[in-house]
Amino acid sequence: MTATMTDAPPPVAPKAGAGNQRSGRSFGQILMIVAGALLLVAAVRVITGADQLDSAGQISAALGLAVPIGLAGLAGLWSERSGVVNIGLEGMMILGTFGAGWIGWQSSPWLGLLCGIGFGVLGGLVHAVATITFGVDHIVSGVAINLLALGATQYLAKLFFADGDAAEAGGNPKQSPPADTLPHVTVPGLSDGLASLEKHHWFLVSDLAGILGGLVTNLSVVTILAVVLFVGSWWLLWRTPFGLRLRSCGENPVAAESLGVNVYTYKYAAVAVSGGLAGLGGAFLALVTSHTYLEGQTGGRGYIGLAAMIFGNWRPGGLAMGAGLFGFSDALQLRNGGETVHALLLLLVVLLAALAGWKLYRKALWQGVISAVMAALVLVWYLLTDEVPSDFVGATPYVVTLLVLSLSAQRLRMPKADGLRYRKGQGK
């Protein structure tokens, strides 16, 4: 007797690893890229004499500037991997800065950190209700959250910080009273030894010592937490059944639902986590960077985080590289000014020349010629000047971000159902 459709077992959600195709670069390729980048930076440092290019102080400052951008990008990654575009990251970061500053000065910075995360989750849930339940356009909802968060925090700051105990402690309508400092970690012995090696300015050895020294000296506990979150997100999203189901919601929610996945639940969870991560990025700015809530202190980092996420091709490793690149260029212009930024021009010449050679090798004639011409122009600029004008120095991180995004745009692939409206029951 043949089996009927009612006799067939119900479909089950896919298991982790099923149908997985290997993508991205191998670990060996990544090591070769890192080693090549280190050799290139070391050579530029020796040629230009810009010893601050990869000093421990420079790396430490770059790390501090990269963390909130990286957390915002990681927040966007969680949301968009589930199929929800989250332009509202900037607003969720603003909510996180206010929550951290509000509770941080009254109790402890640890509670402030949790409150910042909680405020971000609240913003994420509002975005989830609008986009997932009511089907509002994702961009419209995100922009609305940015505007609402900015207006709400400005009002609440005037309400809570302008008078009373807050005003006596140093608060005003645009900032909260200062909060206590969160702990910092320095590896004893190793930090001093690396600093001693760095002072010799040896080729490659001192460069490596400066980079490692910046990673083990005066490191905030929130920075360590951010690293753990990056590794944990990679493992959870790419190595567990939960992550496979969540990513399937961003690729094909109808097929995921037909296999028993509760798409709404996974989307809500992802957007809530996204809000919490953005709130943590805002709390970092309020409690680690400045120890106080300041109006406008996010400075567009939510949008920059989205750019870093796109540069990273919606994957944690590439996102971390994008955030680190922006943090490095931002720290370079803040700490060292035009002379050290001038050294970046030589680095840019080498990269553009390498890109031109690669494009010509791949028979992309026009792209190769344009890259070669740009390399020649930048080389002339480098040879005829001693430092970069101050107006351009301030724009360095944004120029670097735009340049990298333009060069990496051809290999990007967003989740297929990202930003598309989904209604429950479509897969039945």
Could you characterize the architecture of this molecule?
By secondary structure, the protein is mainly α. The chain contains 18 helices and two strands. Strands 1-2 form a two-stranded antiparallel ribbon. Helix 2 (56-81) packs parallel to helix 9 (221-239), helix 4 runs antiparallel to helix 5 and helix 9 crosses helix 10 (241-251). The chain is globular, with a radius of gyration of 24 Å. The relative contact order is 0.17. Mean pLDDT is 86; it is low at 1-23.
Strand order of the largest sheet: 1-2
Distance between the termini: 27 Å
Q: On the 0-100 scale, what is the average pLDDT?
A: 86
Q: How large is the share of residues in beta strands?
A: under 5%
What are the segments in which pLDDT stays under 50 over at least 5 consecutive residues? 1-23
- Compute the number of helices: 18
Radius of gyration using CA atoms only: 24 Å
SSE class = mainly alpha
- Approximate shape: globular
H and E order = HHHHHHEHHEHHHHHHHHHH
Helix content: 55-70%
How can the largest sheet be summarized? 2 strands, antiparallel
In total, how many beta strands? 2
Keywords summarizing the entry:
428 residues, mainly alpha, two-stranded antiparallel ribbon, 1% strand, globular, disordered N terminus
Short recap of the structure:
This protein has 428 residues and is mainly α. The protein is 70% helix and 1% strand.
Record the SSE blueprint.
Blueprint: H1 27-48, H2 56-81, H3 89-106, H4 109-133, H5 138-161, H6 164-168, E1 184-185, H7 190-199, H8 205-216, E2 219-220, H9 221-239, H10 241-251, H11 253-258, H12 263-289, H13 301-311, H14 316-335, H15 338-361, H16 365-384, H17 390-394, H18 396-408
Antiparallel strand pairs: 1-2
Helix pairs in contact: 1-15, 2-8, 2-9, 2-12, 2-13, 2-14, 3-4, 3-5, 3-12, 3-13, 4-5, 4-12, 7-8, 9-10, 13-14, 13-18, 14-18, 15-16
